Amino acid sequence: MSIAPQQPSALRQRFRPLGWLAIGYVLIGMLTRIALLFMAGGGVPLNPLYWMYAFGVGLVYDLITFVYIAWPLVLFLWLMPQRAYLSRAGQWALYLLAAVLLCWLMFVGASELVFWGEFGTRFNFIAVDYLVYTTEVIGNIRESYPIGTWLALLALATVVIVWLSKRGLRASDSGTGFLQRGKVVLVWLVLTVITAVAVKGTYKDHSDNAYVNELAGNGVYEFVAAFRSSHLDYARFYRTQPQEQAFPRVRELMKTPEATYISNDPQDLTREIRHAGPEQHLNVVLISVESLSADFLKEFGNKKDITPNLDALTSQSLFFDNLYANGTRTVRGLEALSLSVPPTPGDSIVKAHNNENLFSVANVFNDRGYQSDFVYGGYGYFDNMNYFFSHNGYHTVDRNDIAKGETIHHENVWGVADEDLYTLALKQMDSASAAGKPFFLHIMTTSNHRPFTVPANRVPQKDGTREAAVAYTDWSIADFIKRARSKPYFDNTVFVITADHCASSAGRTSVPINRYHIPLWIYAPKYIAPQRVTRQMSQIDIMPTVLGLLNFSYRSRFFGADIFQLEPGRERAFPATYEKLGYLRGEALSILKPQRLFEQVRPNFDNGDAVPNTPIDEGQVDDAAAYYQTAAYLFKSGLMRKRADDSTPVQPAAADPTAPVGMQ
After folding, report:
1. In Å, what is the CA distance from 247 to each residue of 156, 266, 581, 625, 646?
2. Which of 10, 147, 603, 646 could link 513 by a cystine bridge, Cβ 3.0 to 4.6 Å?
3. pLDDT tens digits, one per residue of 606-632
């Protein structure tokens, strides 16, 4: 008797557990989406159309992702011989595999809630990046959350769900052969290839609300997509123009009154910067503070009084209140402050290959006999910091340089408390001063980072909260300046205090401009008169501005400008994510995206919302493309490297009595 008519039924029996997993995964996706919707709060207006879009498109992405995550079960159901599959051991093997997959999927869902709470998005490039640094990331999770309790609850939930739904996992096979089952696997493979080629993560981004677009995605899918796009080649994925147009355009955009190009080569951005008067070889201490958003300050409307010392410092400093960060990661801030370049898509230059011997801020100081140090309270292998800085003119100092027995007031997985970091920095400053050398220190803090644990008896806020971490950041900076004030070199030291990025990057738009707003103080009471600067400014302008205040005359290939030399109306900033490249000029924000797409909006600087800019300023979009295209090209081609003639002395300009700001 032929069994051919029974074969479809037999195949359905054999592969029925796939239906069990599909139902479970769709339910997990729906519940995760509901939880994230509540976490988004007012970020998603009470609009049923938004909800329908998020859950409808989200279901499609969940089903597409299911094709990928079901492969372990597909292979099990294909490869298990009938006798082994129907045995007691085979049944328990099926239960075990189903339990492992279910537990993993629920763990991913729970992880998404944690990630969303921190970054306001589905998994993205940050999650991919963190895979490299499991010690810090796992340590941070353990110090921030009751991970043991959560894992126990997930395991218990898995056992209960598998037990209650075991009928859907009952091993059944009325007669299928290996090759017959292979036809199902072949179909599954075809579906996998088709969806991988035909579907992109960006297809969901058609809502005008960034939160809704994120909700419509799938965490696993977004993670894989971010992994695939971690090394985005600008010329391949973004809007470009011919090199013979892009470079002259950038040369024109970078012209300032005190700068002169040294050659007519359109791809050579080297300028001679000439400042009036003798150079002031003062010490410079640059503090890039972890996650110091401008809106933590009373100056920008904060009512919690968590930064009293920094608020007081505002009236004693050259204070800039319209400054925008390059990105949402520490490495982007370090890149901007050390290299003065727009961000490249994908990996930061700090983490990229072939990032040695680049033209850096330290080079300018080193040519003048400075001791240039990068000082970090954690272990500098994280994010490739020690490698990058040690190969670009800096001496690196980190947690390893704190000797056993030295006082450590507090530490967590990220490093020692800020006050102990500043003690380490003061040792470097003392050493350089004793050797008769001026010093340039770039200090990177860590305390204002989850798990937000701080030393006891420093601030009144509850330990483990963002408010406590910000308040402690404020206290430790004031304590550092107080300790430095007792040093003989204090009067000859310029303190530059800013942020690497904001505390949150989430918003309803793709590049919420309020999430890039950071403060800047330049404090040197003997030399720099207090002043409030309201002009728009980019993070890449900070160090060229400091060099200008020091009256340095030097050769530069920085993309940043001395804000006091840049004519009013020419200000611009480069707020970006790892794949969306922003160019802010005046009231318009142009955003370049992969697939050579772009948008242009008029942002609300208070809440980050935006409306389309109509009509589109095509010239500004071309300016944005020219900046990013040339920066990416120069790095990729090795033209950002330090050259022998970069150290050529530059004669100062004649004194200008009308200069608006400078050394007293």
Report:
1. 61, 6, 18, 11, 20
2. 603
3. 999 999 999 999 999 999 999 999 999
